[in-house]
Amino acid sequence: MRTRGQYMRNALLLVVAVVLVNLIGQRFKFRLDLTDDHRYSLSDATLKLLKDLPEAVTVTAWFTEEMPPDLAVARQDMKDLLVEYAARSKDNVVFEFIDPGKADSLEAKARQEGIQQLLATTREKDKAENLRIYMGATVRMGDRKAVIPVIQQGSALEWTVSSAIKEVSIVEKPVVGLLQGHGEPPMEALSQLVQNLNVMYTVQTMAVYDTVPVHDRFAALLIIDPQDSIPPAQLARIKDHLNKGRGVVLAYTPVLSDLGGSPVLDLRRTGIEAWLQGLGMELEPRIITDARCNQVQVMQQLGNFQMPVPVAFPYFPVISSFAEHPVTAGLDVVTYQFCSPLAPTADSSAHFTPLLFTSEKSNAVEAPQFIDLARQWNDGDFPRGPLTVGAEVQVGDGAQRGKLIVFTNGGFATTGMGRSPQPLPQGNIDLVVNAVDHATGSNDLLGLRGKAVEYRPLDTISDARRLTLKWMNLMVPIALAITYGLLRRAWRQRQRRQRTAPGHVR
User: Fold this and answer.
1) Using CA atoms, how far apart are residues 17 and 373, in angstroms rounded to an integer?
2) Is the pTM of this model over 0.85?
3) pLDDT above 70 covers what percent of the chain?
4) Which of residues 167, 189, 216 is at a domain's end?
């Protein structure tokens, strides 16, 4: 049997072990991430960013403390992530949390900083209440500031924070030239895209002149949906830009459509088709249809009423198949409108890399096409697929190889103008921003855009099962304690009988 001294020694060893573990943890700041999605493990790109910081960064998190439970998760996720930033940056990232709701002056300060006020609805005892809440942050380095107006639950937090840190750490942003002069949408019609690009770049409108080179002014060129012909001399200047090792991102719609005026789809000719062919990429003169597609609203007679009814529209493919490539990193879905397939030219020595694909149930049909919204589509209409609708070719020789990234639709990046522009799916914007990052060689943070926190709510259970679990939680520990007591009593009785048995030797 164990003596009292043995128990004391074991207890002392346990205390010493706990103290040593805590001292080692404080000394080396060791943290272990056991989450399935490794949400608190910083990527190599972020670690490199933190290592190269020229000076300290201050993150001010403006979060309301009293929030509904589903929103409060975002506050805790943000805090846990910032703890990791501080630890891995050797305290070169410092942070604080401020609750704007504690004082009117703090609330005014938050709005002044650019933090967006949100309204959240809570319901208690069948009574709904609207709460004013804040869930944003500001990042500062010296006199430079980046604002995160809203941090949403489940968003790619590491990308959000790291991109803001990179924004304030860049002294001079690379310039991206937005081509104008050939019927392209103005910058105002690309507001969502430009806003996302402005985090890392300065976007400037530009025109190509026959005698003025562009490679010395822009890190990359962005060509979005030209409607008119581009003169060969200007296309030659853009090729010179590629030959100098620079990048070009082209989103071009080869299908001519006017849904408001004509039900006929035809092909557009702007000179881009022949130019692409000279660079090793063929734009097939066909129109893609895809069984995996978006819907359009069609007015139909239902009884005595006319009502909008959603109808599948195969000319608007939903792209969810991507190559493993920096341009498509972290993407889930991209929505296209009218597009054509891409393929490498037969005699091309250029390196052709497919990036985006239609579904296996798709097709490429001859132009012109008459749009019949009442048509009943079936599997026989989609015998061909998958088809390439986005690709990259590398242009030039040696180390100076320019990157040309082409998407066969331009409308997918256009927000539109007017009083109510249509917001685009984030996947559409991320695709173009990824392409610009790749074209400029800024691939550091590409994969982080899709590193979102997966929200796993608890399953709801019935009242009967809840009552059963309640009684199990109450009775099972009691039953285990009683069982342990009975077994221990039986063991002691057995030991006593053995000690008192004839012939027993202590």
Assistant:
1) 74
2) no
3) 83
4) 167
